[in-house]
Design goal:
By secondary structure, the protein is of the alpha/beta class. The chain folds into 2 domains: 87 residues, Urease, subunit C, domain 1 (Roll); 301 residues, Metal-dependent hydrolases (TIM Barrel). The chain is 29% helix and 21% strand. The strands form 3 sheets. An 8-stranded parallel β-sheet has the order 6-7-8-9-10-11-12-13. The structure holds zinc ion. It comes from Neobacillus piezotolerans.
């Protein structure tokens, strides 16, 4: 064996297990394995989870918060400030920031990433190419899916439609879209589906990012998904406007979303920062209705979106921190809710991203993280250190922690 984890916890209330890894795969899981291994890691009852999945992140515009502040904290100023900064990004600058961000994610136990990489006719493909290069460079350390993302719209930014096809030819894994930043929005959605079908790739929309319910297009996305036979291959991020609907209007949309098998990435780090900025009292949380979607059978994920820029001026690269934000904000701290949070940053986004061989089962890929906690239920709220990260059967990160009381 290459690696043997001794006595780790896979589920609360179950006996501890040994987990053996060989040739990049999980070879055996037993109460006690009497096998030789090149590296033996003592679990001592600590929790072993499948690698964390960061299903919505912008690597190319991370770590720029200190360059030009977003003083109002609104989406409008975030867009303005970022548009001002973009022309100053050199290739070296993007490489440096994107790679540092990627390493922050890896350090925190992330083994799978979906990143939205943007381009437009005035900026060209510099950021997109950089992210594609990093994807190659980090093969075997982290799996990166790159979304071809038309941040400035497709139809209202002439030349972008051609660039969408070029990005797919350059190897993008997913077709991105942003109906709320384009007009006409239905043509935008149709075009994204047309490109996705041509290249046989999944779709990931930035969707209905507003405090109020006006101008939502999620129902059209559902209809289109079903019509095109794209069930299970469409994801949407933000979807905050859905949180503004009363139950009688919300429920039929959730049913439609479940039927279309659409996955949702809630992005609380950004949504809580930018949302409700025009409310003077009883400020809205401006999140997608996580519990209602989950209970309605929608595949619910939590992701980070941005780290330290005008949209999200904080973040450490730990998706557990993002999930922690969602716990009080999304009322997910109850006894029945808390155990559903860890899957929102592991198995659910793996499903949304159609990752094969994911999860701690014999024969699956050996992508696992040993956490410094003994409770699976409390794994997120404990904010544990990621003691060992294993990707494709190799230890990629080891964290050593030492604290002493000096009183
Ligand atoms: Zn985003």
């Amino acid at each position: 064996m290459d690696i043997l984890f001794k006595q780790v916890r896979l589920k609360d209330g179950e006996e501890l297990k040994d987990v053996a890894i060989k040739g990049g795969k999980i070879e055996a899981i037993e109460k006690e394995l009497k096998v030789e291994a090149a590296r033996v890691i003592e679990g001592n009852g600590k929790v072993l989870i499948p690698g964390l999945v960061e299903s919505h992140i912008h690597l190319d515009k991370a770590l720029i918060a200190d360059r030009l502040p977003n003083k109002s904290g609104t989406l409008q100023e975030a867009l303005k400030v970022t548009a001002q900064l973009k022309p100053t990004f050199s290739k070296e600058d993007i490489v440096d920031r994107a790679e540092r961000t990627l390493q922050m994610l890896i350090k925190n136990g992330t083994t799978h990433i979906r990143t939205h990489s943007e381009f437009d006719p005035s900026q060209g493909f510099t950021g997109f190419e950089t992210v594609m290069e990093l994807k190659e460079k980090y093969k075997g350390i982290v799996d990166v899916q790159v979304v071809a993302f038309p941040q400035e719209g497709i139809l209202k930014a002439p030349g972008t439609e051609k660039m969408m096809y070029e990005a797919m030819d350059m190897g993008a894994d997913v077709v991105g879209g942003i109906p709320y930043n384009d007009t006409p929005w239905d043509k935008h959605i149709d075009l994204v589906f047309e490109i996705a079908k041509k290249y046989d790739k999944p779709i990931d929309f930035h969707q209905d990012f507003k405090d109020g319910p006006e101008g939502m297009t999620i129902e059209y996305v559902c209809e289109k998904t079903i019509k095109e036979g794209y069930q299970g291959r469409v994801s949407v991020g933000h979807l905050t406007a859905l949180g503004a609907l009363p139950k009688d209007r919300l429920q039929p949309i959730i049913e439609k979303m479940a039927e279309a098998q659409i996955s949702v990435m809630s992005l609380p780090a950004t949504d809580l920062h930018l949302g409700g900025r025009h409310d003077e009292y009883n400020v809205r949380r401006a999140l997608t209705p996580i519990r209602a979607l989950r209970d309605g059978g929608v595949n619910m994920c939590i992701a980070t979106n941005n780290i330290r820029n005008a949209f999200t001026p904080y973040g450490t690269g730990d998706v557990m921190l993002t999930a922690m934000l969602a716990i009080p904000a999304g009322h997910l701290g109850g006894a029945d809710d808390l155990p559903t949070v860890l899957p929102m940053i592991t198995t659910n986004p793996a499903k949304a991203m159609q990752v094969s061989g994911y999860g701690i089962e014999v024969g699956n890929n050996a992508d696992v993280v040993l956490l410094d906690t003994e409770s699976v239920t409390n794994a997120v709220i404990d904010m544990p250190a990621k003691l060992f990260v294993v990707k494709s059967g190799k230890v990629t990160v080891e964290t050593k922690k030492s604290t002493e009381f000096l009183f």
